Structure formats: structure tokens, C-alpha cells
From TrEMBL:
The keyword NAD applies. Gene3D superfamilies: NAD(P)-binding Rossmann-like Domain (3.40.50.720). Keywords: NAD. Residues 107-219 form the NAD-dependent epimerase/dehydratase domain. Pfam families: Epimerase. The keyword Secreted does not apply. It comes from Mangrovicoccus algicola. CDD domains: SDR_a4 (cd05266). This is SDR family oxidoreductase. InterPro entries: Epimerase_deHydtase, NAD(P)-bd_dom_sf. It comes from the Bacteria.
Length: 297
């Protein structure tokens, strides 16, 4: 079974998406035309209007009672990020979600490959022990553990997806290259794994069609690469000068930006191909950037 055919196989269901952001919206664009009902939470009234225009039933949360939606949904997707106090969905709704137990068809939690920590450019897979070194990575590892504990106690069909760096429409390097604000920061040995948002959506759809409770999947493409190579390729596609290289030690960066360079690893994606039958639409950043530019034009 190919991922492209996956969402036509299961009967349409009702998806409740906590923190309905960039990746969840891409999934909804696949599900809604196939007859799914999608409810998504957001913190913003303005964003709620955007979601409604996309065919999603918006709910403001925190601030709304989601008990009915939790009771009626067949599938849950959790994208809401944790903070120092833990996972907000678990804080507010663990009892209601846990009560659904095995009656729920599928529960997906979107995590990050940051839970693996730094491997000095080495390879990691889903069986690599978690040793997060950044604050966000530690929060995500804690949230994963919380969801796994709830799933084990209440029989929830939990699936964890560890996402690499996300790019796609509206999240590419082209605008900064055009504006002349893109920087090629070079840290020897530094590599990142990436994933196009449409490939995230097809992996999630494939998992919904082929549930495997307890499964963990890495979501990334086939080509971990230095970040400066991606900027250079974007400039070449635009026919613009490649921004000069800036040594990492000399670059002025925010603490947030600098934290991304604290870890270097190559992430394996064999499991999504073997277990879910996924064929990536964008197996490397070259294919992904070329498609973004073509769509923009």
C-alpha cells in the first residue's frame, strides 16, 4: 500500500487536532476532501477564522471545554508544544482522553528529533536512547514519556512522530535570499535533517490507515546536510549571489538560533518506508526547494 493511497482505505473519521498548526493543517488538506471531519484548536480568534475557511471546525483552547469533541473524535493529533510545566494537553485533558482507551482508533503525538541530543554528526534511529541536551528537547522527551505512560495505563493507540526541521510553503529560504538577509553560517561537521511538510502529512495519513499502537517514527528526508549548503542552493535556484560564509564562532545569533547548532546528527527514516510503505515526495532539500520555487512561480 502506498502512502498516496492510504487515506482512501480507512473510512472517514473525526479528527481532533490539539494545536492545529503548520503540519496539522497539511494533514487536514488531505483528510477533508476524503470526507473527514476535522476540529482544530487554536489560541487566536484570527487564526480560528483562517482554519474555518480551510474547512476545519475551530475551537479556541485554552479557554473552551473540549469534552464533547474528545468524546466524539475517532482520531487525535497532538501538536501543541510542551513547556517547563509539561504537556498542556496532558495537563488539561488526560482524564478525558484516557477514558477513551482502546475505543480510540489512533492517537498521534508530534515530537522532535531533538530528543536524541547531539551525536557529533553520527546516525540515529528510533531505537537510539534519548539524551536531549537542549531545553526544548528535554521538554519533548518528557512529554513523550507522559503520553507513553498514559497510553500504557489506559490502552490508548499512541503513535509518536519525531520530526526533523520542517520546511514547505511559507517556510523556505527564498525570501531571505531575495532580501539579502540570508546567512551561510558554517560550523564544521554540522548537519541537519529536514522534512517537507507534505511528506509529514503523507506519513501521518499512512499511519492512520495502518495503525501500529506503540510505534515511533522518525520523519525526515534521505539527505542530512549542512545548513549553509541549503542556503547556497536556494541562491543558485534564484540566480542570485551565494551569501558569503560566516564562521559559527563569529556569527551574531540569538540564543534560540544558536541552540539549533548545539546538536549535529543524521536521522534515519527506514521505518516509515518499511512499515508504512511511504515513498517521500521530496527525498532531499534539492527536490523540495525546486518544488517550492515552481509553485511560487
Amino acid at each position: 500500500m502506498s502512502a498516496s493511497a492510504s487515506i482512501s482505505d480507512p473510512a472517514p473519521g473525526r479528527l481532533l487536532s490539539f494545536g492545529h498548526g503548520y503540519s496539522a493543517r497539511a494533514l487536514a488538506r488531505r483528510l477533508i476532501p476524503a470526507g473527514w471531519q476535522v476540529t482544530g484548536t487554536t489560541r487566536s480568534a484570527d487564526r480560528a477564522e483562517v482554519l474555518a475557511a480551510e474547512g476545519v471546525t475551530p475551537r479556541l483552547w485554552p479557554g473552551s471545554d473540549l469534552s464533547d469533541e474528545i468524546a466524539q473524535a475517532t482520531h487525535f493529533l497532538v501538536s501543541a508544544g510542551p513547556d517547563e510545566a509539561g504537556d498542556p494537553v496532558l495537563r488539561d485533558w488526560s482524564e478525558a482522553i484516557g477514558a477513551r482507551g482502546a475505543d480510540l482508533a489512533w492517537l498521534g503525538y508530534l515530537s522532535t528529533t531533538g530528543v536524541y541530543g547531539d551525536h557529533d554528526g553520527g546516525w540515529v534511529d528510533e531505537d537510539t536512547p534519548l539524551h536531549p541536551t537542549t531545553r526544548r528537547g528535554r521538554w519533548r522527551a518528557g512529554a513523550e514519556a507522559g503520553w507513553q505512560a498514559l497510553a500504557a495505563a489506559r490502552g490508548l493507540p499512541l503513535h509518536i512522530f519525531r520530526l526533523a526541521g520542517i520546511y514547505g510553503p511559507g517556510r523556505g529560504p527564498f525570501e531571505k535570499v531575495r532580501q539579502g538577509s540570508a546567512r551561510r553560517i558554517v560550523k564544521p561537521g554540522q548537519v541537519f535533517s529536514r522534512i517537507h511538510v507534505e511528506d509529514i502529512a503523507q506519513v501521518l495519513a499512512a499511519s492512520i490507515a495502518r495503525p501500529d499502537p506503540g510505534a515511533v517514527y522518525n520523519l525526515c528526508d534521505d539527505d542530512p546536510a549542512p545548513p549553509e549548503d541549503v542556503i547556497a542552493h536556494a541562491a543558485e535556484l534564484l540566480g542570485l549571489p551565494v551569501p558569503p560564509a560566516i564562521p559559527f564562532d563569529e556569527a551574531e545569533m540569538s540564543p534560540m538560533a544558536r541552540s539549533f547548532y548545539a546538536e549535529s546528527k543524521r536521522v534515519r527514516n527506514d521505518r516509515i518506508k518499511r512499515d508504512l510503505g511511504v515513498r517521500l515526495r521530496y527525498p532531499d532539500y534539492r527536490a523540495g526547494l525546486a518544488a517550492l520555487l515552481a509553485d511560487a512561480r
